[in-house]
């Protein structure tokens, strides 16, 4: 699952899902050479009865008949899913608002997606509904975290760009303004340090964002965020968000 609350800069492609009425999805641009769009029947067969894993944040189960079950950051929601004539997957979940459909392509032996202009390999599929299993793994580890103190967190992030996987990064300006880029979409806001040393974001487009708590472990710097302990991807000095 990509970040649904973000809108790509510039003109949004014509493939739009509006709650209550699905407009016909047309490719915003011709596919790259060798990219063969899925047919409607192919995509239905590819997804029906399977769970798509959006690791580590959850996944979606595409039931026969169009029922959709989703798991994202521990939250379960239901809705409908549909497939357009030219091979795009569309989600109908009321709380997600208006989103773009995701196009699927055969590229040799691979299956690739295009979503808001971004491309990549599609997520892992599992037979049947495995969301309960995924949710059971989404638990807070019972470990002793020696969190960075507020002054340590300030020294860690101020004037630095934190890498957020392959999809984005966030720049913590010394004046505590913030620039974040995710899937090619830029937002601005502010950042602060709470009493426990958490690095907290305030970005109006995202709503309330949980703080990020850093600590050192045997394998290096870790971050506890949204109930998960993961390795910090690293930091670069200065504003490196423009390099994404």
Layout of helices and strands:
Blueprint (H helix, E strand, L loop, with lengths): L15 E3 L2 E2 L13 E2 L2 H8 L2 E5 L3 E5 L4 E6 L2 E9 L4 E5 L6 E2 L1 E6 L2 E6 L2 E4 L2 E4 L3 H7 L12 H8 L2 E5 L3 E5 L4 E6 L2 E9 L5 E5 L3 E2 L4 E5 L2 E6 L2 E4 L3 E3 L7
Antiparallel strand pairs: 1-2, 1-9, 3-10, 4-5, 4-13, 5-6, 6-7, 7-8, 8-10, 10-11, 11-12, 14-15, 14-23, 15-16, 16-17, 17-18, 18-19, 20-21, 21-22
Fill in the keyword field for this structure.
globular, Lipocalin, mainly beta, 10-stranded antiparallel beta sheet, 45% strand, 2 domains, 23 strands, 9% helix, 244 residues, single chain
What does this molecule look like?
- The strands form 4 sheets. Strands 3, 4, 5, 6, 7, 8, 10, 11, 12 and 13 form a 10-stranded antiparallel beta sheet that branches. A 7-stranded antiparallel beta sheet has the order 19-18-17-16-15-14-23.
- The longest helix is centred in the first third of the chain and has 8 residues, at 40-47.
- The chain has 244 residues and is mainly beta.
- It folds into 2 domains: 16-137, Beta Barrel (Lipocalin); 150-243, Lipocalin.
- It is globular, with a radius of gyration of 20 Å.
- It starts with 15 loop residues before the first strand and ends in a 7-residue tail after the last strand.
- The protein has helices at 40-47, 131-137, 150-157; strands at residues 16-18, 21-22, 36-37, 50-54, 58-62, 67-72, 75-83, 88-92, 99-100, 102-107, 110-115, 118-121, 124-127, 160-164, 168-172, 177-182, 185-193, 199-203, 207-208, 213-217, 220-225, 228-231, 235-237.
- Strand 15 (168-172) and strand 16 form a beta hairpin.
